[in-house]
Specification:
The chain has 113 residues and is mostly beta strands. Helix content is 0%, strand content 42%.
């Protein structure tokens, strides 16, 4: 579904300079029947939400969702990628949607942190 050190899912990988565009991509099984996905970024007390867009099929049984994130300052960020049945349910860690998963928080650093 997602691997933070694989450039197919997050590019560029590793720490980036502020202002650098970071592309996130996830692959989800069509069996999950998700209709929305998001990137949530904790910037140290404030959580920012970036909607992901559906961008095509990954084989016959999975689909790609993508978005871009651009840090505006140096610092440490935590991010996670919840999936849900509707866009309005995506800021919750657990939901009633059958495809809502427990999100995995990742840590990433920007120089100067």
């Amino acid at each position: 579904m997602f691997h933070s050190r694989n450039p197919q899912y997050r590019f560029p990988t590793g720490a980036v300079q502020e202002g650098t565009n970071v592309h996130f991509k996830i692959s989800m099984s069509r069996d999950l029947r998700c209709s929305a996905a998001a990137l949530l970024v904790d910037t140290g007390g404030k959580v920012e939400r970036y909607g992901m867009f559906w961008c095509g099929m990954n084989g016959d049984h999975a689909e790609w969702w993508e978005c871009d994130y651009q840090p505006d300052s140096a610092g440490l960020r935590f991010y996670w990628l919840p999936m849900g049945g509707t866009a309005s349910s995506l800021g919750k860690t657990a939901g009633s949607s059958p495809c809502t998963a427990n999100p995995t928080r990742r840590r990433t650093g920007w120089p100067g942190a």
